Queue: 2 jobs
Job 1
Amino acid sequence: MKLNKLAALGLVGAVVLAACGSTSKDSTGGTTKETPASPASTTNQGATIRLWLNGADTKQELVDYAIAEFKKQHPNVDVKFERQQWTGIVEKLTTALSSNDSPDVVELGNTQAQAFEAAGALEDLTAKKAEVGGDDLLQSLVEAGTYDGKFYGVPYYAGARVVVYRKDLLQQAGLQIPKTLDEFVKDGITLKQKNASNPNFSGIYFPGKYWFASLPFIWQSGGDIASKQGDQWKGELASDASLKGLATVKTIMDKASGAPKDGDESKDYVSFCKGEIAMLMAPGWKIGQIVNPQDGCPAMADKIGAFALPGGTAGTTAPVFLGGSNLAVSAKSKHQDLAFDLVKIMVSPGYQQKFAAAGTIPALKSLLGQVGGDEAAKAQAEAAKNSRFTPESENWAAVEASTVLPDMLVAIAQGGDVKAEAAKADSAIANTLNG
Amino acid sequence: MVMQLTENPGAAVAAPPPSPGRIPPSRRSLIRRGRRIATPYVLIAPAVAVLVLMLGYPLVRLLMFSLQEFGLRQQFGAPARFVGLHNFGRILSDSYFWDVLWRTIGFCAVNVALTMTIGLLLALLLRHLGRPMRLLVSTGLLLAWAMPALTATVVWQWLFDAQYGFVNWLLTRLGGDYEGHAWLSRPLSFFMVATVIVVWMGVPFVAFTLYAGMTQVPRDLLEAAAIDGAGPWSRFRYVVLPMLTPILMILTALSVLWDFRVFTQIYVLQRAGGINRDTNLLGVYAYRISIGANRFDIGAAVAIVMVLITVLLTLVYLRQMVRQEEL
């Protein structure tokens, strides 16, 4: 009896395995078909280029434009576009780029790019840099795309965080758009006090895990996350300048924010739609998420404004983290020249102009003046002028993955000693960055 | 087969296929016995093959990783250097690893104890309930058991949400000061919430199995005990419990295995709140090192340590199974 059951189980297992095996074969079938075409790559007859872009940042019409332009140059080559999610993209790229079935052109977040460049996952494009814009490319994205003096990641677009705010709430409190960073903090506290009846109300929404939002305060007071001395990284969060910035963050979390002290920013639009947020530091596209008809609040649209986070004195802006993307050709791509031609189209002025028109910061400096769109887009373009970047190390992605920064902020939000927590984070960050 | 026959027809001639009738009786029984011995192995072969494929190969790879230097570079084709036990030395000398290990063992112990106690009480309840109520309770248990861990954790996490959670709302209504209370922010209350979820998901299996075990306790034994003047507690303690002991042992061993490598519940709760450094358990820790930070080598070493501990625990379980078989 028992034996039969075991055997049956084995059979079932074998069947399941066989089923799995056949599906995975099916899914790769598309690319196996093209292999016979490889030897004839001089004509590229019937080749297929796979393009991976992440999230909703690249609108479909831009993709269509790129494919149409590409088809003009290579009428016999197909472009297969596959949209990926930002969440979990590093894991997915790690497996995809190292497989025989690698996509040809991929988009990498600018904090993630160096890890893949160092690992040898991407094609060296140093010799072709001039063809994709050369000195006209956004410097900080070029740095993200460069490892060990070699150029791998072509700047694609950038984005900076702005302050999204409720015009009506500021008006009710008799406030103008703050002109300095100190004023911004003070206004946040005032707004919180004026709406004290709701304990969830935030003058400035600052959940404990929102480490991106803490960077402008650290940088504005002259601090940084880490610095490189010789070939060794050293944590800088416990430096006097950084501590001053962290103290400001603590003030905001204590007195201006009603957000969960250990929460993250992923559901900020829910609180915003409930009317519990007056000011929010967020990427420019956040307004679109707030007013989206599915789970947002379109009715609030005309009450929402945006401005660039102000700096130390009136008329300046605070340094903000410049987010963005790089495009790269997979080292395992079977059609590297074709893949590069596609990249070339996507950083051409014709394509990048469309980014600028839609309010995204383009990768070409010469187009920065053309950034159009709504209030948020203009605020973003202004904020991006004073932008900084996380430590440029192939191990930075590992620091992010270790969640040391959010851990530190949550501990501070809960009343932990700022200096001690910062020192703890410093040694963890230095350990990871130095390998 | 066919090929061989045509290529070497002589062999077929030299050894003509014996017709069944001509085989001497002794040889026939030998064949039969051979067949009898072979049958189990043939039948178990697919199962073993599947196990080797699905568990054996990854385990060997894991072991390789743990003995190599293996990061993102190696994943992209750089040669992986063997470093012996270096990775193990690195984690074993890291005080944080020991923190996580003891935390995991503590969490596991508390959860198993609670799961077993509540499961046993529920089994007793099931036995004494009337038919309709029993049906209701078992349906509830079954639903809790059938729910995917991820879904269950997300639902529980929302119940305990600091701002919009039901638990805070209820406790505030009941007169407590729980407005905006962040349950996940302190490690102890974080693990309390995690325990609620893990126990909630673990109890149904234990309750059902023990209930099934209890139905096997002969009625006349219990009646005899009652006639001899044993009260409900004594009947449970001296008649039911001894008969349940083997099942209890196995259930405990299984629960230990499950709770030791808990992942989903912790991972999801960590995303919702709390300080990850203070709430990592081994399963999540290994994941964060290997997948998050791309240190596949060190992550594998942590995983190997987990496997070793699990094997030790499984030995207890296997011994119990074997002993029961002998009964």
Job 2
Amino acid sequence: MADISRRDFLKLLSITPMAILEQPLVRIFNLSANPDQQNIILLVFDTWSADHVQLYGYPRETMPNLSMFADNALVYHRHYSAGTFTVPGTASLLTGLYPWSHRAILLGGEITPEHRNHQIFNLLSPTHSTVGYAQNQYANIFLYQVGQELKTHIPIDNFDLEHGLIYDLPIFRNDQPTAFASFEDDIFQTGVGFDGSLFLGPLSRLITSREREALNNESRLSYPRGLPKASGLFRLEDIIDGAIEILKGLSQPSLVYLHFFPPHGPYRPKGKYNHRFDDGWQAVEKPVHALSQSPATFKEEEDQRRRYDQYLASWDAELSRLLDYMKASGLLDTSYVMLTSDHGELFERGEIGHNGYLIYDPIIHVPLIISRPGQKERIDIQTPTSNVDILPTIASLIGRPIPDWAEGQVLPEFGGFPDQDRDIYAMDAKTNSAHAALTRISISLTKNDHRLTYYQYPNLNYKEFELFNLEDDPDELNNLYPAQPQIAHQLQDELLQKLAEENRRFQN
Amino acid sequence: MIVERCLDRSIVKLPPQATGKPMESTKGRKIMGILRKRFPIWNEILSVFGVVVFTVHSWSLREFLFRLPSFILKYSVSEISAVFFYHITFAFLESVIFCGTLVLISGILPSGWLRSGFVYKGFLFVLVAAAAAIILQRNFNDGVLTIDISMKYLFYLGVGGGAVLLIGLFVLAQKMTRLQKLIVSVADRVSIMLYLYIPLDFIGLLVIGYRLLR
């Protein structure tokens, strides 16, 4: 110490600010240099159809804040889910596998043991801290299937106004999927039907019903149509606040999967949005499909469509707070932020929702918007992509080889080849056994501008092909199957061959 | 003999020694005396427990079998077995809670109301409660009543109507010894199912315990 002169001391003092800034600067520079050190934030909005977002050409301005976010992001215009409802759609997103491989094809179904450890969390757990939250109970089951490699599993009802899902109690932590199968909609029924518990079941329903009545009355001013409901009642603002809290406490690098229930029905926007889109605009009326179970009228479809749009607008207003937070906190500079959905929603051909057999664009065409760290321009991608591409893309982002079991490709702009000719499949097999060949199935093959859909339901004595040109006929009104046999048979052969190939494993 | 013991005490007087072993200490005797005075005898409780177990387990199994085809489509055999044992174990817990509540109520109420003739009264109570529960279950959808009635009126109707029906049945059975005997003998026969359900419950507790603690 005696050797340090006053001059040396002042020199040292002058570089003190640099020493203070050293850690953050090194972090920022390292992050820019090493993509595997950046966060990956995957925001999934359940039942979000791209066909209801103006960014994708919808005439109603349902999500203006999303459009602003997309100004600095990659917008995938032809992105499709591999499933038509939460179970297959989410499983495909998380595993990079088509439903014929992950076999989560039925309501409450699970990912087959062979692929249980093939989720994005397992892939990233060696390098990233993993955080998962799913407000949809069917998606939440997949998070339980990950096991220890999902470091932080946020309880499903964490941001809800109601709590107390039995299978989510700590006592069942080692057996959640089976406890879920036993208690939810079984021993305790929440939908139509009888409870497995004779006395406690209806008692629980009475108590829940009273609680909900009280909660709805309390929130009548903000939510005149009642509070939004997932497994319990919740407020849109609470789940956004919750998401912000999760992101605030993030350790870098992290993989964050947040699966929000909105805009899944019931469509209950805030009061301010209840009369939005009373504009007289109507979608094209489409003929009722033969597979439509209890066909809704066109008026009912349009009423529900408007409610869905209002709910989307209400959700977008809340979402803007989350997007603003990510921008203000610098997370957008250090993270890949992906916004997408597990499946869409139908308001046509007699169908409302996503519980039927039909496959048309609104039910499989979902948004995919990705913001790269520090991105300052919008890039539109017209190449067809699938939600099975998310996992390979994430693998490629962190410098991992694409797992050999993955069925998707790396997305364009992330090193993937923009392949216009690729085959994109989507399917629904909710009445087929998960342990058997797919024989009761709706399956579509989208290739170039065409989509061939095959409906095979021997139990309903229904077997039909439909072919549409998505470029010339985006409303899928003109079935070209009889008129264009060449394209029809080419796609048909390809689809049937693929189906036969995937079914082969069950032949023995 | 069981039939006679289980009839209304106002009709058939029971010898006090038939209700259990005498306690050694004075304090113990005092407690046993209070319990005997306030609560039904063990055999009666067991008979009613048999009826509750039969009703609750049968309903639970009915629901399990109703859902079995969908379980077969999506779950493995081991998962389906686990779901079965969850059903059985929960049914056991529900039976204990229901029967325990009934015994507790009989101890709180004046003895003539429920304790004397506990078997036939308990049987009728289970019958009415089960019917009410099934009607209620039928009319709920997604946490909302499908019948056009407010929760307040449903409560009045359910509790009030159920109580009136129950009191009516109690009075009827009290006046008709034959009906009492018939109910008690049915309860006695139904109790035989305890030999099937209780061992299953025991296995269920072991299986679920293992699954939760592994």
